[in-house]
Amino acid sequence: MKQYIKRLFSDSAAFAVATMGNKLVAALLVPVFTRYLHQDGQMADWGLTNSYTLILTYLCILGTDAAMAFFFFDAKDERERKIYLTNAIMFSAGICLVFTLISFFAGESLAKLIFKTNHDYSQLFTVATLATLGAIIIQHLLGYARYGRRVWLFNSFSMGYVIGSSLLSVWFVVEGQGVLGLFYGQLIGQCSVALILLIIFRKEFVFQPSGKHLGDLISYGAPLLPTLLSFWIITTISQPMVYYLSSVHDADILAVCLRLASIIVLVTSPFQLAWRPFSMSIKDREDAPQVYSLVGRALLVVGTLAIMILTFFMDPLYQIFAGRPDLASGYIYVWLLSLGTLFNVLHTVFGVGLLIKKQTKKISQSFLVAAIVYLLGNILLIPLFGLWGAVSMTVVAYLVVILFVYRQNQKIYPVDFRFGSMLIYITVYLLAMIGITWVQLNNFANQWIYYLIALMIVLLTAIASQLLPLAALNRLSALLPKLGGKR
């Protein structure tokens, strides 16, 4: 088991190069955007447009990227892998081109209907849709590189397209192009990198339309679409709901909070990139359930502690990023949004057996229930509590996902995650974080004393509940110095 845990850490560390670079650049650019998108509602309008591009990506890809993670290893030979890849890209790009035509003819009318501000967004949806086409091609090709463990190709182009697009977006925004300028930068950057990758991977394509292979991809991936749509609801619907049920100003604050909360992805995203191919590659080993259990428990503890420590410094960090006095109160909401991101990643570990057994419909059902809870909760709570209602429902929704996915997973692929200990730990952690928020809101003196007490309580809970026994901690600490070694 040790060698496989080591490989997961090694792959996570390797893929972290691109993810950390991308997220750090994105974080460093937030102050630029908040200062130049200074007109009321522009940050919120950016968030609404990102909500559109995210759901567009889900509809065009239709889960075929997740299917490729399975069929890359399940294909009988290299040629069949290439057929799967070619059909996945042709299918996704074709759907996106259809949406591009629709947005070209109906985009102006949709913009007038959706946005409450008075900015000129007549071309916004067309530009954003074309930029999404480039991103979809990149996602498929870099996913293929990741499954083949072509680490440096993945890292260099992941960083190239994100950083390049971001810098181009900054240039357009500084030149006064506003929200539309953001997507001009994405359009140029993403489509350019997509073209370069198509040239690099040209020998990986087998232009053989295959109903069988496309059917395999869709039959595996399409049941995940309700999951992805539900995930879209949980991840992004809060922005339009705050926009319409609370105020445009609150939506501006939420947009900044969401971007700062994405710092937690520095911990979770490298793991998420490595987890799916890793978990599939060891699924036939006898000790696989023990590996899955240890990884899930470690991710929960490491991720939550990272969020807690970031919260200690969140106020000054947020003020630097926001750069505007009218957005200054947003720092208190960031930890809840970060925790929701962590819980979303955890469901992929708790539901690993459902993926192995091809029971993806049960994951979809769990997300569907959570999405309904999330929508109803937001409708009730946002008018009463504003942003607190939106951010608290993020955590509630992902807890619902975890509980449902865990229950379904245990029926067909039992894994001893020590779930009771996890629930105790999560309860204590939430109480500790609520206490920290109370201390910050009331501006108590000597706040560091409260921070250290909360940190010690959470650490002792993790050990006392045997969530991470000392033997497991020693095993993980022994592996960390070797992360950069051979796999």
Provide mean pLDDT, rounded: 85
How much strand?
Answer: under 5%
Number of helices, where a helix is a run of at least 4 consecutive DSSP H or I residues: 20
Query: Which secondary-structure class do the elements indicate?
Result: mainly alpha
Q: Multimeric state of these chains?
A: single chain
Globular, elongated, flat, extended or rod-shaped: what is the shape? Answer: globular
Q: Rg to the nearest angstrom?
A: 22 Å
Characterize the largest beta sheet: strand count, sense, and whether it forms a barrel. Answer: none
Q: How many β-strands, per DSSP?
A: 0
Helix-strand string: HHHHHHHHHHHHHHHHHHHH
Low-confidence stretches: 479-487
How far is it from the N-terminal to the C-terminal residue, by CA?
Answer: 13 Å
Please give the domain count: 2
Helix content: over 70%
